[in-house]
């Protein structure tokens, strides 16, 4: 099989929630709710397949919104996926899930369904809406019974950093198959974005111990170390070592921006990264994606521009989160504010 290329495809802005860290609503200037028409979705789908044919990649879709299930042509799109034997993941809400719906999702090729827990009950419901916490935990069972992998994702910020260990416990108790977290990207809302590098490293240390304790007990939850700063932490603790046969100039992992990922919004706008507001590179309605990858995405592969990462031995595997750097400092290539690597650590040249 060819290497995967992922498309984070937002088919609608429609949503049952107005989350405080949402890129669509947090800035308070979203004037209208946009959804793709069926013709637009067909065109985008085949544009993505054309991209993968050109670059010899296997397409993988992360279908989202808003909540994609609210789109009137949601099931029609899933039938198109099924006809082409395309597997996919849904990033959505729990409110419209039941056993029948989840079985239908599985039949159409849904491999994973990602839900969010952004704190314990009071905090999570403050982020999203009352009742959301309990509804999310209940939906995990429906997803699992259908044979779909349930994913619980947390967005870490100053507001909930102390509750993340408890969120892990709640996810495990509910039977989540995968747990991960990423960091809040400042996007115009009023959330506190002053989480320090020391606070974040302390969180990773606590979570690492908790992950290992659960794994020793035979826990079935897979703990996905999604944030690239886990690479820095694992290097320090000896869990990750730089391969002796690593080739200079080769990118082995880290941020997918400009590497193996594109985001498509309901407007057709194509972004190198959804979490970087200024990373629009074209339109899936009018541009050939295969051409955009060469003409407009190259700037996000200029790794020597990183002010700190370019001097770091972990550049091919980490690079932190440029979206957090951009949201905090206004520069995609600026220092990641939660990265604690220093010259004294021997990582920075």
Mean pLDDT: 93
- How would you describe the shape? globular
What is the string of helix and strand elements? EHEHEHEHHEHEHEHEEEHH
Beta percentage is 5-15%
Sheet with the most strands, sense and barrel status: 10 strands, mixed
* Count of individual beta strands: 10
Number of helices: 10
Q: Which strand order do you get reading across the main beta sheet?
A: 7-6-5-4-3-2-1-8-9-10
- Using the CA coordinates, give the radius of gyration: 20 Å
End-to-end CA span: 38 Å
Category from helices, strands and their pairing = alpha/beta
Low-confidence stretches: none
Please, could you describe this protein's structure?
The two termini are 38 Å apart. The protein has a 10-stranded mixed β-sheet. The mean pLDDT is 93. It has 349 residues and is an alpha/beta fold. It has 10 helices and 10 strands.
């Amino acid at each position: 099989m060819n290497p995967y290329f992922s498309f984070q495809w937002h088919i609608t802005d429609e949503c049952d929630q107005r989350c405080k860290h949402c890129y669509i609503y947090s800035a308070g200037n979203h004037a209208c709710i946009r959804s793709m028409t069926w013709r637009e979705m067909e065109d985008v789908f085949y544009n993505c397949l054309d991209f993968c044919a050109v670059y010899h990649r296997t397409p993988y879709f992360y279908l989202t919104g808003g909540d994609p299930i609210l789109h009137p042509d949601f099931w029609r799109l899933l039938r198109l996926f099924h006809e082409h034997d395309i597997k996919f993941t849904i990033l959505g809400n729990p409110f419209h899930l039941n056993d029948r719906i989840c079985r239908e999702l599985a039949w159409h090729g849904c491999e994973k369904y990602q839900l969010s827990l952004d704190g314990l009950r009071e905090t999570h419901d403050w982020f999203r809406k009352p009742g959301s916490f309990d509804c999310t935990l209940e939906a995990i069972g429906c997803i699992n019974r259908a044979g779909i992998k349930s994913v619980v994702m947390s967005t870490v910020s100053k507001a909930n950093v102390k509750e993340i260990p408890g969120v892990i416990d709640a996810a495990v108790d509910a039977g989540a198959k995968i747990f991960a977290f990423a960091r809040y990207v400042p996007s115009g809302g009023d959330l506190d974005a002053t989480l320090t590098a020391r606070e974040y490293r302390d969180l990773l240390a606590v979570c690492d111990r908790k992950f290992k304790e659960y794994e020793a007990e035979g826990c079935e939850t897979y703990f996905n170390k999604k944030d690239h700063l886990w690479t820095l932490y694992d290097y320090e603790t000896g869990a990750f070592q730089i391969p002796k046969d690593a080739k200079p100039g080769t990118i082995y992992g880290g941020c997918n921006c400009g590497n193996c990922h594109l985001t498509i919004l309901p407007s057709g706008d194509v972004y190198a990264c959804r979490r970087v507001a200024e990373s629009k590179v074209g339109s899936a309605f009018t541009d050939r994606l295969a051409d955009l990858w060469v003409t407009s995405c190259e700037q996000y592969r200029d790794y020597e521009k990183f002010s700190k990462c370019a001097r770091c031995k972990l550049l091919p595997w980490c690079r932190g989160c440029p979206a957090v750097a951009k949201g905090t400092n206004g520069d995609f290539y600026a220092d990641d504010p939660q990265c604690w690597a220093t010259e004294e650590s021997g990582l920075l040249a």
